[in-house]
Amino acid sequence: MFEAMLEGWERQQRSRFLRAGTIAPRLRLVRRFTEFTGQYPWQWSPGELEAFTSQLASGDRPVVASTVRGYQVTLRLFCEFVTDGRYGWAVECDRRFGEAPVQICHEWNTVAHVVDYEGQPGRRALSYDEVQVLFDAADGRVEEIRARRRKGALAAMRDAAMLKVVYAYGLRRREAAMLDVVDFRRNARVAKYGTFGSVQVRYGKASRGSPPKRRTVLTVPEMDWVVPLLAQWSDELRPLFEPGGHAALWMTERRGRVSVRHLNDAFGAARERAGLPAELDLHSLRHSYVTHLLEFGYPELFVQQQVGHSHASTTGLYTSVSDEFRNRLVERSLERFDDLWEVQ
Predict the structure, then answer these.
(1) How far is it, in rounded angstroms, from Cα 214 to Cα 207?
(2) Per-residue pLDDT tens digits for 35-88
(3) 265 phi and psi, to 5 degrees?
């Protein structure tokens, strides 16, 4: 019966076009919970969920609240499926075992979502100086390899270019890894940028059950230093990897596409070399892009569209504008409304 429930739930999720990468962890969690309780779904009660949550939150490496809530959401969805009268599981379980599954996840025994951002406090946007130090560290690795006359200088140049492009266009990891050469397009309004006036992001973050979202990211003047960098990479450096007919922008030494993991590793190596905090990760460059565009004076809607957020509130979570920027806004307001409260 239990296996039939899991198979049915898997079919239901597949009918919603959820990805295998979403479904498989859910099924594993239900099996894990079943092993923890030593009971089948028709025997579960809210007390089992509370014991499971307590176990997750204790020990030497307690799970963070957002992860626990994700587990609870998965168990709630499974319970909704097996208690839905349209599928008949409750009736069949009661007939066979004299017990029926119930919903065990309720408002009073699950983690509440009370704040917008629950990420690690150390994860933040980089300052302009930190971005420069990071890029200098990545470039410095190239020079160091050359000075030692060792292999790997070309790969190091690729890694440095990748990090700069991630920042210059506010890309996610997978978006950057999946870029092809043909994804860069001209922008008729900025002809001087040539082929690199914009980039077509084809592997944006997908909503559940939908294909990857697409968007066009324009090259902004404050980041136009990326144009000669991309031109050099495309015309001079990438051909040295002998890509043949491979479409990928970022090639490996084995003539394949770089992985998302490699992007993470490249950032980690540059961060360590630059002496930046360990809490910063590759996604921090995307936070930096959002923050810096706002500080440059771009409207929030433009920034939201550049990074592919469906909601402005999401873009707001990425923003950590500097005190200097906020002080400039206050000064502008003072200049405009200096006489507003004067008594006539």
Answers:
(1) 12
(2) 999 999 999 999 999 999 999 988 778 888 888 999 999 999 999 999 999 999
(3) -65, -40
In this structure, how many other beta carbons lie within 10 angstroms of the beta carbon of residue 14?
Answer: 13
> What is the rounded CA–CA span in Å between residue 44 and residue 37?
8
Query: What is the residue extent of each domain of the chain?
Result: 2-109, 128-331
Instruction: Give me the CATH topology for the region 128-331.
Output: hpI Integrase; Chain A (1.10.443)
- Between the two ends of the chain, the Cα-to-Cα distance in Å is 83
What is the DSSP secondary-structure string of 283-304?
HHHHHHHHHHHHHHT--HHHHH
CA distance 176 to 169: 9
Q: Which pTM was predicted?
A: 0.72
CATH architecture of 2-109: Orthogonal Bundle (1.10)
CB 137 within 8 A of CB 274: yes
Burial of 242 (0-12, 13-18, 19+ CB in 10 A): exposed
Distance CA 220, CA 203 (A): 21
CA atoms within 13 A on the CB side of 25: 9
Q: What is the pLDDT of residues 138-164, one digit of tens each?
A: 999 999 998 888 888 999 999 999 999
Tokens of residue 148, six digits: 């030692």
Name the strands in the sheet holding 184-185, side by side, starting at the edge strand that comes first in the sequence.
184-185, 198-201, 215-218
